[in-house]
Write a structure and sequence with these properties.
Layout lengths: L1 H24 L2 H29 L1
């Protein structure tokens, strides 16, 4: 589960950087990268949820 959390943290940092670039500078390419990472984050968060539920049992 620790590996999943590290992946989520890294992905969120990438997302935050690209989203800020889009909002602050209007960088369209950064927006596309942020959207792509948001999909990866969704998958990682679902994976974390499954692992967390399994660990709680």
């Amino acid at each position: 589960m620790k590996a999943i959390v590290e992946k989520i943290t890294a992905a969120y940092e990438a997302y935050a950087k690209d989203a800020a670039a889009q909002v602050e500078n209007g960088n369209k390419a950064a927006g596309a990268r942020a959207r792509k990472v948001s999909l990866e984050l969704e998958k990682l968060l679902k994976e974390f949820r499954k692992a967390s539920i399994a660990a709680a049992k």
